[in-house]
Amino acid sequence: MSEVWPDGVRVVGETGSTNADLAAWSDAAEGAVVVALAQSAGRGRLGRAWITQPDGLAMSILLTPTLPPPTWPLIGLVAGVSIADALGDPVKLKWPNDLVTADGGKLGGILAEADVLAGRVIVGIGLNLGSRPPIDGAACVADVVAAPPRTWLVAAIRARLLSDVAALAAPGGPGRVLDRWRARAHTLGRRVRVGERVGVAVDLDHDGALLLRDDGGVTHRVLSGDVAPSGVRPG
């Protein structure tokens, strides 16, 4: 039986990047989604490749946030919360943009690309649903919960993400979203390495920066970077 996709979802058999396809969709409205059944040039942070499994999910969604641009970096964290909520309690969040199992296996990632002049953010999402790519540390959703149908998951993620981003604009909205992220955090409380810094990830700051306390007791604000166990260099 063929998959029946929600309205406002453009499905392509194969493409290079769903983010690029959505950026080229000239009359796309907020909430428009591109899904690729196969993706040949999927991207993660720092230009890294993302391998899309045949039964995985590669999607991008268009947001037009009514938020001051300085708060837009929170959208990547919000997306993590929205996706994890759609998938279920066993899914955890690794700062800044990964969805992981309780033991750190990578289920998926998020790439949020902002165009302030156009007033939009494109959020790319890649998830391993029923199987994992042949990469060390990879996991799939079916390892921890029953993997839902892609059509249902796309609709659930879109609905939650639009609602959660809108909630950011309410008084106290950023704080509530960050509390939800903390409740699912895999990173916090662990001794980690981010670049050349090593210490304990103690919290998130008000803008989503990671607060890392080093062995001298000094707390550093980390705005970007890859988190790895303290004995491993991020790669």
Description:
By secondary structure, this protein is α+β, with helices and mostly antiparallel strands. It has 2 domains: 9-183, BirA Bifunctional Protein, domain 2; 191-229, Roll (SH3 type barrels). 21% of the residues lie in helices and 26% in strands. The protein is built from 4 helices and 12 strands; from the N terminus they run βαββαββββααβββββ. It has helices at residues 18-23, 74-87, 150-168, 173-183; strands at 9-12, 33-36, 57-63, 92-94, 98-100, 106-115, 120-127, 191-194, 197-204, 210-213, 219-222, 227-229. The strands form 2 sheets. It has a 7-stranded mixed β-sheet with strand order 1-2-3-7-6-5-4. Helix 2 (74-87) packs across helix 4 (173-183). The protein is globular.
Q: Any chance you could write out the topology, listing elements then pairs?
A:
Layout: E1 9-12, H1 18-23, E2 33-36, E3 57-63, H2 74-87, E4 92-94, E5 98-100, E6 106-115, E7 120-127, H3 150-168, H4 173-183, E8 191-194, E9 197-204, E10 210-213, E11 219-222, E12 227-229
Parallel strand pairs: 1-2
Antiparallel strand pairs: 2-3, 3-7, 4-5, 5-6, 6-7, 8-9, 8-12, 9-10, 10-11
